[in-house]
């Protein structure tokens, strides 16, 4: 009976026994002080430890996406939750739960686009022609290409250091460079119009995740891990401020009303 119950929650990740904690087979006491946090993240989600160079690339993505201030809905929501008296974990969860397809999902979506482009290149298309066909398709349905353009930054300051580091990793043989080539081809095609649409942090991190072999779904999970640091910092800052019940608009500013004018109930 006990074995059948244990099988119900079987896992290849964690082995817990009295006085023993093993993660992916490694004793926790050996991991502490021997591996970095990015290495630990990789071990937990991938099953094996990364090389130092792979872990360095992963760390860059985790640092890059930490925060974008209260201008980001997830951060603003966490701050509002904290101002309403919620504990830090609840405030952080409020922000995390805003990270969906529209806000927080572009990295995963861009990685899926890069996978699609790779399949087309493997079938005989050049990176440029595959990228151009994809851009044409997205423009025809008036859709945004995930990972490119930013509503706040004409040029995302996080793009260059990430892409430069990825280029060095390609030169060092750490990764193949296949997805970097595709991402840059897409950026080149998007620059051909009247208004260039450069790569943003989601596109740059997606290229790195693709090169490192992470599944698209994990790209969003890794973004959540990164942004949770910003959520914690902002929730804590708000927790220590006197403002209570901080709404989306400052006091004295009401949202514009667009409903019916004043009216009376009809007589019975």
UniProtKB/TrEMBL annotation:
Keywords: Transferase. Its EC number is 2.3.3.16. GO terms for biological process: carbohydrate metabolic process; tricarboxylic acid cycle. Residues 243-268 are annotated as: Disordered. Pathway: Carbohydrate metabolism; tricarboxylic acid cycle. One of its GO terms (molecular function) is citrate synthase activity. The keyword Transferase applies. GO terms for cellular component: cytosol. Signal peptide: none annotated. NCBIfam families: PRK06224.1-1. Belongs to the citrate synthase family. PANTHER family: CITRATE SYNTHASE (PTHR11739), CITRATE SYNTHASE, PEROXISOMAL (PTHR11739:SF4). This is citrate synthase (unknown stereospecificity).
């Amino acid at each position: 009976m006990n074995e059948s119950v244990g099988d119900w929650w079987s896992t290849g990740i964690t082995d817990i026994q009295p006085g023993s904690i093993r993660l992916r087979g490694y004793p926790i006491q050996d991991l502490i002080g021997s591996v970095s946090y990015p290495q630990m993240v990789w071990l937990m989600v991938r099953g094996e430890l990364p090389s130092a160079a792979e872990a360095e690339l992963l760390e860059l993505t985790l640092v890059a996406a930490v925060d974008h201030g209260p201008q980001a809905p997830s951060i603003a929501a966490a701050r509002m939750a904290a101002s309403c008296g919620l504990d830090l974990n609840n405030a952080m969860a409020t922000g995390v739960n805003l990270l969906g397809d529209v806000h927080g999902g572009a990295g995963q979506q861009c990685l899926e686009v890069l996978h699609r482009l790779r399949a087309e290149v493997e079938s005989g298309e050049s990176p440029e022609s595959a990228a151009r066909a994809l851009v044409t398709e997205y423009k025809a349905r008036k859709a945004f290409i995930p990972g490119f353009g930013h509503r706040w930054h004409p040029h995302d300051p996080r793009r260059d250091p990430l892409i430069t580091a990825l280029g060095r990793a390609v030169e060092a043989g750490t990764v193949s460079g296949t997805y970097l080539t595709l991402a840059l081809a897409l950026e080149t095609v998007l620059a051909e119009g009247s208004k260039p649409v450069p790569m943003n942090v989601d596109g740059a991190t997606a290229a790195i995740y693709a090169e490192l072999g992470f599944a698209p779904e994990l790209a969003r999970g890794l973004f959540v891990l990164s942004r949770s640091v910003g959520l914690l910092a902002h929730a804590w800052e708000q927790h220590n401020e006197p403002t209570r019940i901080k709404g989306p608009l400052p006091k004295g500013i009401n949202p514009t009303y667009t409903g019916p004018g004043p009216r009376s109930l009809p007589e019975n």
